[in-house]
Request: fold
Amino acid sequence: MVPQDCQTVDATHLVLKILPHALNAKVRDRSDVLGAAIVDESGSSYYAYVFYERVQGLAKERRLGSALLANVIVHELGHLLLESNSHAVSGIMSGHWSGEELRKISEGNMFFHASESSVIRDRLISSQGSVFSEQLAASD
Reply:
């Protein structure tokens, strides 16, 4: 039995699926893609995916253990929370994780930039406020 909240998908209920491998042919042909988030032109997005075989392969190759999986999950959820497919030059939202980013992951030093954190915090506070307002209105 699935709890009711697990069936809801909206701005306050996001979905992240860990798939064995990429399903889309465009992504399947790119070995550097570890996950994907679907964000439309308006910034609306509720679904993100992580491609487990690729993450595990790179984690094993670079001896990163579960830290890589955790960072890929954070990166993809970051797209949903930032409401953007954009990538940063560095940090958790970087589009290409090479030596420097992988070193930071191994050290536990991969973070959002201050501006990204601020946007996420503001959106979460705003979402909580609107959900609370809706709950109050429904109880009247």
Remarks:
- The beta strands are 15-19, 35-38, 47-51.
- The mean pLDDT is 86.
- The first strand starts at residue 15 and ends at 19.
